[in-house]
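The instructor's notes for this session suggest beginning with a concrete chain rather than abstract definitions. Hand out the sequence below and ask the class to guess, before any prediction is shown, which regions might be ordered.
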Amino acid sequence: MSDLVTRIEQNIRCHRLFRPGESIVVAVSGGLDSMVLLAGLHALAAKNRWRLGVAHLNHQLRGRDSDADERLVQTRAEELGLPFSVEKADVRGYTNSHKLSLEMAAREMRHEFLAGTAVRTRSTSIALAHHADDQLELFFLRLLRGSGSEGLAGMKWQSVSPVDSRVRLVRPLLDQTKAALRSFASETELRFREDATNALLEFQRNRIRHELLPLLKEKYQPALERMIRRVMSILGAETECIGQAAEEWLAKNTGGSAAGKSRKKRLESAAESPFPELPVAVQRRCLQRQLLQSGIVADFDLVERLRLFSNKAVSVSLGCVAGSGQGGAGPAPERRVFVTRTPAGQVLLRHSASAHLPFQAGTLELDLGETRGEAVFDGLNVTWKIAASRTLTPPGPAKGREVFDAAVVGARVVLRHWRPGDRFQPIGLDRAVKLQDLFTNKRVPAPIRRRLVVAVGPGEELFWVEGLRISEHFKVTKGTKQRLMWRWERA
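After discussion, reveal the predicted structure:
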């Protein structure tokens, strides 16, 4: 038995990944990682009485190469005498109909296929070939997306399928490096196919792999992998503690998860605390768990709005439900609900037949002829200051603060709420776009966007929108003589 297979066996035993006699679906793409996984599990199958099945999703993204991948996996399954499940996916069509990136569409369709295969074959586990290098790339991918500690802790040895809670995702190679897998393949003369798209820099994960990580290792930290694994281990332990505290609190105060009630070591001090007195991290996790249980994507902005303000309704989407899961029928109409948090910390949902809310009226004209001033408009405090460009040090990035070219803005501006048809050209864009589209892209809920304030300059052109970047037309340039310092804060 090779060293790699021995380590896989140790991982399975130490982390209790599979049971003797279990039926296991092995996800195999035809690449190095999954072909090594299949070889390792097959070497251990007879000893553990596992019933393996091979599953392959043909993404049809690389033409003949995709078909060649499928043929290789099918041939290997036949050589090993294993049942083979395959399906062809219209990933590009799914991408367009569901407005997703190519990577995300492929991921969703892959999970649907694998979970469906597991249920059909009466398997409760899907073996995936994620390894240590994947963990490192995922850390930086999630870091750049602003993920919290739970996301930065990385993949677990086993987790629940995102599309079917009856199915587990198991990762027996999670502590093995790509180099170790490649060495095993070389020693055993294992056939696999290289995916040419892994070198394409249009995908962010590939840019992290080929550009960012080599730079960090060469210029900043040669032991990058070891350091990041340490950080992920620390984050994993801390997020587990936070999660346990949240479960304890939810079980005691909202009738939540039964898992929290069954733990022997209860965090009594946290469980007994009123919601406002909980540590911020525990507050966030309590809200996140309740949102996810209700089928709502618990992004950071939504969690923070609920955490900071009780009894204030936020309109959110329950998401688009795919008609067939494989790009056949397209998404169902979007459903919206109003979400609130009670002062006691419980998340409540109120369904509404219509998400349409009235636009708010009212305007306030400001005279910027003076060098400084302040105003209040519908709960928004605005202060401004005008000074010669050479006497005013440009500020660094800060929430609630922007700088404009005062001459372009003009002496008289109007504050109002946004209206249907408003267009805005954020700095860096080459054209104005509908404000409605910008809000949708940023997932700003309807009740929030309708109370946001805009500032209108010459020709009814918007030069500032609360919460967005400044306008391209009003930015400071080398020719700017006077700067307008613009500050705002919600009361």
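Then share the key points. Confidence is low (pLDDT under 50) at residues 257-267, 319-334, 353-358, 391-396. The radius of gyration is 27 Å.
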